[in-house]
Amino acid sequence: MTISFPKDSVGLVIPQTMAFNEPLMLVCGKELAAGYQITYETYGILNPECNNAILICHALSGNHHAAGYHSYEDRKPGWWDNYIGPNKPIDTNRFFVVSLNNLGGCNGSTGPTSINPKTGKVYGASFPIVTVEDWVHSQARLADSLGIKQWAAVIGGSLGGMQAIQWAITYPDRLRHCIAIASAPKLSAQNIAFNEVARQAIVSDPDFFDGNFTEHNTVPKHGLGLARMVGHITYLSDDAMGQKFGRDLKNEKLNYDIYNVEFQVESYLRYQGEEFSGRFDANTYLLMTKALDYFDPASKHQGDLAKTLSEVTANFYLISFTTDWRFSPARSKEIVDALIAADKNVSYIEVDAPQGHDAFLIKIPRYQEALTTYLQRIAI
Amino acid sequence: MRADLEIIQEWIPKNSRVLDLGCGHGDLLAYLQKNKAVKGYGLEIDPDNINHCLQQGINVIQQNLNQGLANFATQSFDVVVMTQAIQAVHYPDKLLQEMLRVGKTCIITFPNFGHWRCRLYLSIKGRMPVSKFMPYTWYNTPNIHFCTFKDFEALTKQLDAKVLQRLAVDSQHHNSSLARLWPNLMSEIGIYQLTSNH
Lengths: 380, 198
Fold this sequence. Notes:
Chain A is an alpha/beta fold. Chain A contains ten helices and 14 strands.
């Protein structure tokens, strides 16, 4: 039997790692020592004019593996495989796609699980706070190394959308299109509150040891699992959860038992938490939620988003989903309105989807069509 | 391009900033963008129409006109256009008022229910007119607020708007001498350019 990948898959991909010789000055005032690394993947071919490159920015728990498979045994493709591949909306027959793991991540790029060259020990809690701006700077350096002066588009969902917006603000000349999906110009107090609950779940785990759990040979799995459970609830809509689980029971009847799983939804959340805590780093989760909380580009202009966007030159495309309550359509519209006030090119669609915030990862015909149509109009 | 859009484009100055309400496929904006260096945005609600707009390379924003234009600043557009849509919104008076606030000038086209054929149909058959031009029956029509020229002009007075230009045309968008003589009776479409007196 020959094993093969679906026709519209980018197939087998091999992550690559690039090291940088210059230290990176961070917004928090600290510096990331020279030699830091970024792990990334590419799909498609960079054309001789180098004008067909698209940068994919990942969300909170994402990484560089956006499409394709790492091995023939891989059960699941990359996190955005629904949208990246030959003849898919982000068509790798046309575009050269770059996806990376952000600094502070735990999937190859320098982060809390890496060795600090100055101490020879794992960074752990000592890894500096990284912001969306820092990521954009580090991504620009990666672009330089790959010979990409200007992206045809920078695309991202959720926290990835924030990076795309920051790109347009920080490097107006270096991208032609900015596509931000299910995103927001800054977090609301409610968003920050959810992040804080997630962080408290992690830091109060007895196995956390102030972030230096590696030295203690432990993993704060319980706290990280809890954090993920809270996050997961906010990524789905009430309807989506209702349809998936309702009030279905794990066993036939109620057991009047506080500690064990009774409802299917409990079982699902516990599984999600357990699975996540086995593959993700607790310090990275703290860093990424902080980066979300800190993102507020308009703060440099007294909250005036239109003024903040006055220098952008990219064409913007924003997409939101009707049942997304974490980053609701109203949040995307704030960006749209500011762009119109700043006299910029912007298009916006609101996709009718029951899946909540997670809709941006899911195959939805209207969303696929709208993204395909827009990307086809990008001249290369 | 649709004949009414052909007429409208002549009323829109070069390099102006245009907001097109219910922009459909985006033909007008695509033309203005290409030939008149106009910076524009289309508001549209139908997903298929939006897709056409995206194909045309214009700025299209998904927005329901029934929710108003509160997100647009006062006098922030040179021209606000609305073709063949006012009869389909919930509160035409409120929307018109909003258009006059947002735009320095407004261009509106609508079907004239005072046309002799409509009058004849209603008076002889006693039923709501259905024609090639207005092909819907009363229960499935998107058009919920038909008006005549006289009705529309009464509304503009009430809103303290000034009519800068008016063109009464037939369904082929010809401005015949009969339509000039008896616009409310002889023309099927009204094309108005308004501005606020405020």
